[in-house]
Specification:
It is built from seven helices and seven strands. The chain is of the alpha+beta class.
């Protein structure tokens, strides 16, 4: 029979475990919202541009003097604009809603493309060209919002590493070794010093200072990225050369559905 002292210690331990879990969730939420905040103004600007396109082509289609073929072209542009606007909104909602933290079957290429769409305007503003290649559909059971959080962190880090602009290359493919889905994020930025590279995923270990908007530099983003990827039974690694750039590679088992069953 347990003594009162043992029960008290067990109760304190349970409370500490629960408090630790809550703090980790709050930290992850704060990091996700900070990532969304970093690109919010650019997304809003892009959304406004799309609305102007929709408005102008709608006016053209309503002109009494417009020919039928002109109206058809205008309406096609309206549909394209609405589709793009819906994509922007859905991507933003996906980053914040709680349902995105439940396991769902998602195509890794499509998820990556959605994050690129969110960051596209922000990257263009900083003179960064994006190149995205995909080898085909890679359906994988993941928590979409958390994986989007990882990619958003990596894209923002890459942008901050290229203050004079550069090229950001993303590749999504199936890695035959171990039946893994692979996402590769490579920049042509400043690179990471060798003495810092081995500690890059440790909490509070940062390779940069906050940017001009005060974002980044806390040393928590990449640590959370590793935790999220490992929670998906995957792994994340980094390669970097000072003055040439950095490559992050994410690998996630595409047969995780069998593991979760």
């Amino acid at each position: 029979m347990e003594s009162p002292e043992t029960k008290t210690q067990d109760g304190k331990l349970a409370r500490l475990v629960e408090e630790n879990r809550w703090l980790r969730e709050q930290l992850m939420l704060q990091n996700r919202l900070a990532g969304v905040g970093a690109i919010a103004s650019s997304v809003a600007h892009e959304f406004n541009n799309v609305l102007m396109v929709i408005l102008n082509y709608s006016k053209l289609a309503l002109k009494p003097t417009a020919k039928p073929e002109q109206k058809n072209i205008a309406l096609e542009k309206v549909v394209q604009g609405c589709t793009k606007a819906a994509g922007l909104v859905n991507s933003m909602l996906g980053m914040t809603r709680n349902s995105g933290r439940q396991l769902q079957m998602i195509d890794l290429g499509q998820l990556t493309a959605q994050v690129v769409t969110l960051c596209e305007k922000d990257l263009q503003k900083h003179r960064i060209k994006v190149e995205l290649t995909q080898s085909g559909p890679i359906p994988t059971l993941v928590m979409p919002a958390l994986l989007e959080q990882v990619l958003l962190n990596l894209l923002i880090n890459a942008r901050q590493a290229m203050p004079q602009g550069g090229i950001l290359r993303l590749g999504v493919r199936t890695n035959p070794e171990g039946n893994m889905g692979e996402i590769r994020v490579a920049d042509t930025g400043t690179g990471i010093a060798p003495e810092k590279l081995g500690h890059i995923f440790e909490p509070f270990s940062s390779t940069k200072k906050p940017d001009e908007e005060g974002r980044g530099g806390s040393g928590l983003g990449l640590s959370l990225c590793r935790q999220i990827i490992e929670a998906h039974h995957g792994r994340i690694r980094v390669e970097s050369t000072v003055g040439k750039g950095t490559i992050f590679t994410i690998k996630i088992p595409i047969n995780i559905a069998k593991q979760a069953a």
